[in-house]
Amino acid sequence: MADGTIKSLASRAAVWLLGGVYITAGALKIADPLAFARAIMDYDLLPETLVPAAAVLLPWVEAAAGALAIAGRWRAGALTLMAGMSAIFLAASVTALARGLSPECGCFGPLSGRLGAMTLMVEVTTLAASVWLLRVETRGRAG
Fold first, then answer.
1. Each residue's pLDDT tens digit, 64-84
2. What is the DSSP string of 127-143?
3. Structure pTM?
């Protein structure tokens, strides 16, 4: 196989995996917005008045970004959104841990565990994957 073919297959697989992670994470939180609101509150980063809107809207944005990336519709925009969300989630996690908090991560709704090293690994991986995919996606359009 040519190097370009391998890279193309790798990027397609990565889009499906990353998109699937975001769709799954969003869908699990959509199913129980009250539980997700409690998880958001435990991070102690947002004013209480913004938590209900974040708990309802964020999962839909996650699921939509994942679906759009997989579908190839506005893929660069979807990947940019996923990179931004991953960076925000990573910053929120690091901030919570630095303040000695140990909330439920809230990442995958009822399947979430406590915030910790595994959460940070997932956040770093999704951030790196979305940035790499965005670079692959936009490289073909440059020039």
1. 999 999 998 899 999 999 999
2. HHHHHHHHHHHHHTT--
3. 0.88
